[in-house]
Design brief:
The chain is an alpha+beta fold. Helices cover 41% and strands 23% of the residues. It contains three helices and four strands, in the order αββαββα. A four-stranded antiparallel sheet has the order 1-2-4-3. The chain is globular, with a radius of gyration of 13 Å.
Length: 91
C-alpha cells in the first residue's frame, strides 16, 4: 500500500461528497433519526469493512456516527481509504 501524495489526496477527496481530510485521516459524520438507526448503520458497515480488511475508526454519539479512515500500517492515506469511503457512502 503506497501513501498518496498531497495532490492525489486532494483530487480523490474532491470526488467524495461530505468527506474531509483531517491530517492523515479521511472523516465523515453521518447523522440519523435516533440511536437505533445509527447502530443499524454501524452494523451494515461491518461486513464490507471485514471483507476489505480495512477497518474504520468509529465514534458514536447517540444519533451521530463519525467514521475515520486511515491506513495505519502505511502511516497515512492510501487508495484503500478512499475505496472504503465510497463503499461506506453507498450504504
Amino acid at each position: 500500500m503506497a501513501l498518496l501524495s498531497s495532490s492525489e489526496i486532494q483530487t480523490k477527496a474532491s470526488q467524495l461528497s461530505d468527506w474531509t481530510v483531517e491530517g492523515k485521516e479521511l472523516k465523515r459524520t453521518f447523522e440519523f433519526k435516533d440511536f437505533l438507526q445509527a447502530m443499524d448503520f454501524v452494523n451494515k458497515l461491518v461486513e464490507p469493512a471485514e471483507a476489505a480488511g480495512h477497518h474504520p475508526d468509529l465514534s458514536i454519539s447517540y444519533n451521530k456516527v463519525t467514521v475515520s479512515l486511515t491506513s495505519h500500517d502505511a502511516g497515512g492515506l492510501t487508495d484503500s481509504d478512499f475505496e472504503m469511503a465510497k463503499t461506506i457512502s453507498a450504504l
